[in-house]
UniProtKB/TrEMBL annotation:
Family that this chain belongs to: Belongs to the tyrosinase family.
InterPro entries linked to this entry: Di-copper_centre_dom_sf, Polyphenol_oxidase_cen, Tyrosinase/Hemocyanin, Tyrosinase_Cu-bd
Domain of life: Eukaryota
Cofactor (UniProt): Cu(2+)
SUPFAM superfamilies: Di-copper centre-containing domain
This protein's UniProt keywords: Copper, Metal-binding, Oxidoreductase
Annotated Tyrosinase copper-binding domain residues: 18-105
Gene3D superfamilies from the UniProt entry: Di-copper center containing domain from catechol oxidase
Protein name: Uncharacterized protein
Domain Polyphenol oxidase central, residue spans: 116-155
GO MF terms held by the record: catechol oxidase activity; metal ion binding
Length: 230
């Protein structure tokens, strides 16, 4: 993962590029992993009289919750984005949910706007909202499954997230390889030091046993590459 940016600290252009690349790679994984299982993306449909299971959230809900937790207050009572009844006070709320709707539409469009869950109990479930004129309105689930029903659409944008994902994995592999090489080098130096001390102390049995134990542990940490490095 990219290095987190501290509060009140502006990200550099390089850090920003890495964050965007990592996010695009994550989104590629989300759509790739859930393409054949709508519950993994949309979450499990909760029916009347059912308790909401802790495993009901899909990938989309998890992404949505992460943004709420990241931008909301981290201390009780978690006002603004951190709490359901105050979230809409923060203008970020509308951008987040607009993007959630777009991701839902992207997934639905790729599946030909198929109604994934056909339980009538779920489709007929309703919610009460105040509309833009402050009038109380009731909206059913079946009327909200595609944006066209709500009076808007999203433009179709083609993004080569698969290419971004491959690029991201390649860079991460290079970074991990670099870290591993540095770690192995340090362990190799440590091994040489322990072996040197082991030879110096010779017959001092207690010290030698302790040092030799460290040598064994270090060799195990180095694995099959220790001969080449040490």
């Amino acid at each position: 993962m990219p290095k987190p940016i501290r509060a009140n600290q502006l990200a550099t252009a390089e850090e920003t590029a890495k964050i965007i690349e990592a996010n695009q790679s994550t989104m590629h994984n989300v759509f790739e992993a859930t393409s054949n299982n709508p519950e993994l993306f949309m979450c499990k449909p909760v029916l009347a009289d059912e308790a909401v299971p802790t495993t009901a959230s899909g990938s989309l809900e998890t992404l949505h919750n992460t943004l709420h937790m990241w931008s909301g207050s981290r201390e009780c009572p978690y006002h603004n984005m951190g709490n359901f009844y105050t979230a809409a006070r923060d203008t970020l709320f509308f951008g987040v949910h607009g993007n959630v709707n777009q991701l839902w539409d992207y997934n639905s469009r790729n599946r030909d706007y198929k109604v994934e869950f056909d339980q009538e109990d779920w489709l007929q479930a309703s919610f009460v909202f105040f509309d833009e004129n402050r009038k109380l309105v009731k909206c059913k689930v079946k009327d909200c499954l595609i944006p066209q029903s709500l009076g808007y659409t999203f433009s179709v944008e083609k993004q080569d997230n698969a290419h971004v994902h491959r690029k991201y994995l390649k860079r991460r592999k290079t970074e991990k390889s670099k870290v591993r090489s540095q770690t192995l080098s340090l362990l190799g130096i440590r091994l040489k030091n322990w072996e040197s001390r082991s030879n110096e102390w010779g017959s001092r049995s207690n010290d030698r046993v302790s040092v030799e134990a460290e040598v064994v542990r270090t060799k195990l940490a180095l694995g099959p590459k220790f001969q080449r490095i040490a």
